[in-house]
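HUMAN: Would you supply a protein with fold tokens?

ASSISTANT:
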Amino acid sequence: MSRHVVTISELADDDLRAILEGARAPIDDSLLAGQGVALVFERPSLRTRAACSTAVHELGGYATFFSDEEIGLDSRESAEDVGRTIDALYAICAMRIRHHSVFGRIRSATNDRLSLINLLSDVAHPTQAIADVLTIADHFAGGDPSQLAGLRVAYVGDATNVARSLAVALVRLGAEVVVGAPEGYQLTAGTDEDPLGVQGAQLRLTSSALEAVRGADVVYTDAWVSMGFEAETKRRRADLAGFRVNEALLDAASPQAVLLHCLPAHRGDEITDDVLDGPQSLVWRQVAHRRSAMIGALRWIKDGER
């Protein structure tokens, strides 16, 4: 059975630690020499595509990019047939897709032979969470993710797939997570990536942005209008107006607090320029760690074949 990085929730603690360790280790191996990784993108991305391409290349492999127009999941042909085709020609498939259920369908169609990496779905964004953990560990723990216990991380705004994966990862590493979001935008239970289901988790939900960030070591936000929700832009801006991360809100956090945003940022909506471009911002270190996260995921998958 192949290894997959589809959600943080389905990774055992040892597997999550191994991915984080692999992401931090020097690049002195060629685990993917002569092997291909298929990059299937129903959703566009600058950072994800760049991070994947460079990570695969640095491990000795080659990446092939397939856009939505080229593949047409469930329009040009079924997700199952796409999976079977890729399984015949590639070692790993990394996918940025609209519907999380596609991962299960491809796993079933290929008898779990094809290793899958979730580069974003409507449910989870595990590679972003791994990059975020690495960024936080760099700043607060000398790079060691096992030393994050007791750190307080506040997520403010629309609790999206990014918030779910990040919260699962952080609470399993012993950090405290507070999510500030209005009704209708808060975390809910029952998804494949469910921080509310982590036993003993230090997770708190609040409808107040100020309460969420008060005393926090890390303040994190994401776009209010995610891909696929453009028709709701006006309503979302009104509903989330009180959750904009600006200087006044950041001042309520710890004096040593840092700012994270997975990008792209809608400047003036969820975050202001002075904060995003300010001295507390670590967003460009997050970008660099997107590559690190992919290297860790690829190494863990290939190590499972030994």
